[in-house]
């Protein structure tokens, strides 16, 4: 039986970091819902692609999902503005549900206050933020720390998808 994955995004998301994992998850039999500020919001990606949100943050509950995807781009920084987004993500980490995040996405998880002693990677400009939040930062294509999968850039998507799918199958 497939898992239900929440993708938390807003404007300026790095499109490939959303669409490539989403395709991999769907191809494996899982479903993905795009969550943003409001349902049916048209999100404009970093490269101009238009993406429609399925649900708004006010109408979702972490218990309705099996995993969380946080793509990169500038979306993670914009997501930090609304504390409901951070609370949503925090619930996944607290409940040991899989969390998949790439590039600038790990920066958003600083909002959860749950990164101390977690092994992670990210885009180079985010690493100091992660260290300051107590994470153990590595420069590897993919880092898996229990339920948390992180990667650095779109070049790492094959490894990111592979490790994310392993967690979804367990």
Automatic annotation (TrEMBL):
Entries under InterPro entries matching the protein: C56_PfpI-like, Class_I_gatase-like, DJ-1/PfpI
Record keywords: Hydrolase, Protease
GO biological process: proteolysis
The keyword Hydrolase is assigned to this record: yes
Superkingdom classification of source: Bacteria
Residues in DJ-1/PfpI domain copies: 3-166
Transmembrane domains' residue ranges: none
Keyword Protease: yes
SUPFAM superfamilies: Class I glutamine amidotransferase-like
Protein name: DJ-1/PfpI/YhbO family deglycase/protease
Species of the source: Gracilibacillus thailandensis
């Amino acid at each position: 039986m497939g898992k239900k994955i929440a993708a938390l995004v807003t404007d300026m998301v790095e499109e490939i970091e959303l669409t490539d994992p989403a395709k991999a998850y769907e191809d494996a039999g899982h479903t993905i819902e795009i969550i943003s500020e409001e349902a049916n919001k048209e999100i404009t990606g970093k490269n101009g692609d238009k993406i429609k949100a399925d649900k708004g943050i006010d109408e979702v509950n972490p218990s309705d999902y099996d995993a969380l995807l946080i793509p990169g781009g500038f979306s993670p920084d914009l997501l930090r503005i609304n504390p409901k987004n951070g609370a949503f993500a925090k619930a996944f980490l607290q409940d040991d549900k899989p969390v998949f995040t790439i590039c600038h996405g790990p920066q958003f998880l600083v909002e959860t206050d749950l990164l101390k002693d977690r092994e992670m990677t990210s885009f180079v400009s985010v690493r100091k933020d992660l260290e300051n939040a107590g994470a153990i930062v590595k420069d590897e294509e993919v880092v898996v720390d229990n339920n948390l999968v992180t990667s650095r850039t779109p070049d790492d998507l094959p490894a990111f998808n592979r490790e994310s799918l392993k967690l979804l199958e367990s």
